[in-house]
Write a structure and sequence with these properties.
The protein is mainly β. It has strands at about 40-45, 50-60, 65-70, 75-85, 85-95, 100-110, 115-120. The protein contains no helices and seven strands. It is globular. The chain starts with about 40 loop residues before the first strand and ends with a strand.
Length: about 120
C-alpha cells in the first residue's frame, strides 16, 4: 500500500513516405535507395537471414558509424565501428556464428540512432 511511480516519455513521430527501399533488380540482390529526405534510416536485407546481412544507408557527409547487434536480453553480441562516406553506403555483416533467433540491430551515426529487428534463421 502506498507504492507509486511516475514516468515521463517523449515520443517523436517522424514522417514516412513509404519509399525507403526500392528493389530494381527483381533477382533478390537488392539495389537500395533511401529517399526519405531529412530523416536518417537504414535498410537491412535479407531479413530474415541465414548468415550474411547487408546494412544500407544514405549518409549526408563523411562520419564514423557504429553497427551493433543486441540479443533480446539487451546483451551486446556484435560491434562494428566503421567509416561511412557521403552518399550510399552498404556494409556486409557475416553473422554465421549467431544462433537462430530475434535480434536488435542498432545503427548510430554522429547525430542519429535507429534500431530495427533482425531475424537469424538456420
Amino acid at each position: 500500500k502506498g507504492n507509486a511511480a511516475t514516468c515521463v516519455s517523449v515520443v517523436t513521430v517522424l514522417p514516412y513516405d513509404g519509399n525507403n527501399l526500392i528493389d530494381n533488380s527483381g533477382n533478390g540482390d537488392q539495389d537500395v535507395e533511401l529517399t526519405n529526405a531529412g530523416v536518417f534510416d537504414f535498410v537491412v536485407y535479407p531479413n530474415p537471414t541465414s548468415g550474411t546481412v547487408n546494412v544500407a544507408m544514405e549518409i549526408k557527409g563523411d562520419e564514423t558509424i557504429f553497427i551493433r547487434i543486441f540479443d533480446l536480453n539487451g546483451r551486446l553480441i556484435y560491434l562494428q565501428e566503421t567509416e561511412a562516406f557521403e552518399g550510399e553506403n552498404v556494409f556486409r555483416l557475416h553473422l554465421d556464428e549467431l544462433k537462430s533467433g530475434l535480434y536488435v540491430i542498432d545503427v548510430q551515426t554522429d547525430k542519429h540512432q535507429v534500431q530495427k529487428r533482425l531475424l537469424k534463421q538456420d
